[in-house]
Amino acid sequence: MMSGFAIDSVAVIGAGKMGTTLIHALLEEKSVSPDRITATRRKEEPLGRLAAAEGVSTTTSNREAAAGADLILLCVKPQGVSEVLSEIAGELGPNKLLVSIAAGVSTSLIEQSVPEGTPVVRAMPNTPSLIGKGMTAICAGRWASEDQVEQTRKIFAGMGRTVVLDEAYFNAVTGLAASGPAFIYIIIESLAEGGVKVGLPRHIATECAAQACLGAASMVLETGNAPALLKDDVTTPAGCTIDGILKLEEGGLRVTLIKAVVEAAKRAGELVG
Ligand SMILES: NC(=O)c1ccc[n+]([C@@H]2O[C@H](COP(=O)([O-])OP(=O)(O)OC[C@H]3O[C@@H](n4cnc5c(N)ncnc54)[C@H](OP(=O)(O)O)[C@@H]3O)[C@@H](O)[C@H]2O)c1
Fold this sequence. Notes:
By secondary structure, the protein is of the alpha/beta class.
């Protein structure tokens, strides 16, 4: 059983991209030693590679992994969740913590498939988590304690920023933080096309565009200033930036981005349930 922030043993069910990244975060954090982590997936070969690279135990039996762990990280695709839960339900209960990262799968849906009293925490990371620059939203199910939510938050903090919030916001956060990187890639790609149009070699244009986004994002996060204020600082009277902004406004960039988040959030609510 877990006490405080100490984790004794972890099962990572579905050690794919996210599951493996979580294993790295756990090992980096030194919150648990490799021999106390058991990773599962259906294919044995990648499990063998994972065991050799990270020193973790592996098995193709989800039930065996869950039986020996007090923290179970559920990292399979959303459509695989109910099958895995039916396999491991017998190993769950009030003394285990189940953390699911399956997009669109609510804590109440999970709670219907596990024994009463099983603490469930849901986390929604995004793809930049794979390189430690993620944004993860975290919420508690009905039986998870504040300590267990904080314990989960600390794990995901190893993959970037975290926010704990009510599950009612999860579709909104999915539309913004999870889909957002795709929107930004299109912005970077388009800015780079602009650079190419005015004569820059493509690789330089792409680097300038990406670094401009990274720098601007860091200014927002590190200064705490409103984006509008930071934009005003760049926009000198009769300078070149205001001419560019005029074109952005003509093209409806703001409205388009607002609508993109609204639509993505709406769709997130229609996914699994
Ligand atoms: N990638 C992201 O940025 C991101 C962001 C937010 C949320 N998520 C969520 O994270 C979860 C995993 O995503 P991912 O990108 O890491 O996918 P992934 O790389 O495909 O990983 C899923 C893993 O689950 C394993 N698996 C499938 N069925 C299984 C079963 N019955 N028992 C044990 N393992 C099983 C698969 O391996 P085998 O085929 O060998 O079984 C695979 O390695 C998804 O639910 C997704 O919604 C991902």
